[in-house]
Design a protein that fits this description.
By secondary structure, this protein is of the alpha+beta class. The chain has two domains: 1-82 and 144-215 and 346-389, FAD/NAD(P)-binding domain, CATH 3.50.50.60; 86-140 and 218-344, 2-Layer Sandwich (D-Amino Acid Oxidase, Chain A, domain 2). The protein is built from twelve helices and 19 strands. It has helices at residues 14-25, 57-74, 93-108, 118-124, 147-161, 210-214, 243-246, 250-253, 258-263, 270-273, 311-322, 367-383, and strands spanning 4-10, 30-33, 49-50, 86-90, 114-117, 135-139, 143-144, 165-167, 172-178, 181-186, 191-199, 218-228, 239-241, 279-282, 288-291, 295-298, 332-343, 349-353, 357-361. The strands form three sheets. Strands 4, 5, 6, 12, 13, 14, 15, 16 and 17 form a nine-stranded mixed sheet that branches. Strands 1, 2, 8, 9, 10, 11, 18 and 19 form an eight-stranded mixed sheet that branches. The chain has a two-stranded antiparallel ribbon with strand order 3-7. Helix 1 crosses helix 12 (367-383) and helix 2 (57-74) packs across helix 12 (367-383). The longest helix has 18 residues, at 57-74. The N and C termini lie close together (8 Å). One of its GO terms (cellular component) is cytoplasm. Pfam families: DAO (PF01266).
């Protein structure tokens, strides 16, 4: 019975780990497996910004539940959560109008936010250029995480304090029904058995059910990011999102003025070509993560995105960032790209195979913010909130 579980979760990123967390909270016997020695996908290659404010109304509900879950876990075990808020900085009247409209939407949703004047923005965020900002919208409840730390501490918490079984270096090569059980086999021949399997495989579509992914509407986004050297005594609190983010994030699509404002944007700019919007987030060591850009390829053509960093994109992002905030240093110590999968026509990819095998992926850029809340609802739906007895 040692290798038999209520559920095996395949994929140790944020989406898989929170499916495992909520299954444990339901009293289920859970095993979380990850193909690598440690998670190193999109969960560790992002800004670490948890921003329900940037999501549409449906996903903001998941994001707000995620905030509650993050803070509850942080109260028991340090997983690097810092409640220091999110600000959107408008650079002109159009963007400021969108902020006013988004605040009205959030007031009706009972989600706390506060308009900041230009002077308040300049006082709150040192180095912010007065020739850039016109106003801001601040969300005090939102948090940041350290993406290369958080997932490891969360799994340490689940393994050490919750007793979850976690198997790293367990690449799953086969997952199929064998009598009353689903048999999960690793490349080393180790086998697990489960009543249900949940597959949260990020952008790795090649090993399990490749035909399902080849015929899906999934695409993969490649994002370039970079990190400055530590900024000395300089402090930049929270998540800093700027005018291009206001024009990009889904939450603003619900604003009455959004469609008109988008119509006036040029289509042939470098910024539009590479999907650039400028974000800032200071890490615990004082360095600042900034970016990012977006390139896309279909799920079966990931290789078309290449493995290189485009230095023209990085140079463009640095020069644009300098127009927004005068950091003490823009000397870069680290550059990288991340990849995440998303759907072209829906908000997440879900497919059930043989009734008890559930694929859940393609959460896109919503992963760090939405996974904890979405997984709670999804794992309850999969199990109809009832424990399966072994």
């Amino acid at each position: 019975m040692d290798n038999k579980y209520d559920v095996v979760i395949v994929g140790g990123g944020i989406l898989g780990t929170f499916h495992a967390y909520h299954a444990m909270e339901m009293g289920l016997k859970v095993c979380l497996v990850e193909k690598n020695a440690y998670p190193k996908g999109a969960t560790t290659q992002n800004f670490g910004q948890v921003v329900p404010s940037g999501m549409n109304s449906k996903w903001q509900k998941y994001g707000r539940e995620s905030l509650r879950i993050y803070k509850e876990i942080q109260s028991q075990f340090d997983i690097s959560i810092r409640q220091n808020g999110t600000v959107y900085l408008a650079s002109n009247e159009e963007e400021e109008q969108l902020l006013v409209e988004l605040r009205a939407i959030n007031n009706s949703n009972e989600y706390a936010s506060k308009m900041l004047t230009k002077s308040e923005c300049l006082d709150r965020y040192p180095g912010l250029r007065k020739d850039y900002v016109t106003a801001g919208l601040f969300f005090p409840e939102e948090v940041t995480v350290e993406p290369r730390i958080m997932i490891h501490r969360l799994q340490e918490f689940l393994g050490t304090h919750k007793g979850m079984e976690i198997k790293m270096s367990f690449p799953v090569i086969n997952c199929e029904r064998n009598g009353d059980w689903i048999e999960v086999e690793s490349s080393a021949g180790e086998k697990l058995w489960a009543k249900k399997v949940v597959i949260c495989n990020g952008s790795d579509f090649k090993n399990l059910y490749p035909e399902a992914f080849a015929h899906s509407d999934l695409e993969v986004s490649k994002l370039q990011m970079m990190q400055t050297k530590p900024q000395g005594n300089y402090e930049l609190k929270g998540s800093i999102l700027t005018g291009w983010s206001i024009r990009r994030y889904e939450a603003f699509h619900e604003c009455p003025s959004f469609a008109r404002i988008k119509q006036n944007e040029p289509e042939d700019s470098f910024q539009k070509q590479w999907g650039v919007h400028i974000l800032f987030k200071q890490a615990v060591d004082g360095s600042v993560i900034l970016g990012d850009s977006h390139q896309y390829a279909d799920a079966n053509s990931i290789e078309d995105l290449g493995y290189d960093l485009d230095m023209d994109i990085d140079h463009f992002m640095v020069e644009e960032a300098k127009k927004i905030i005068d950091l003490p240093t823009y000397e870069i110590q680290r550059r990288w790209y991340g990849m995440y999968s998303q759907c072209k026509t829906s908000d997440i990819f879900q497919k059930t195979i043989d009734e008890h095998i559930h694929i859940v992926t393609g959460i896109g850029g919503k992963g760090m913010t939405g996974s904890a809340g979405f997984s709670k609802k999804n794992i309850a739906t999969i199990f109809n909130t009832q424990k399966i007895n072994l």
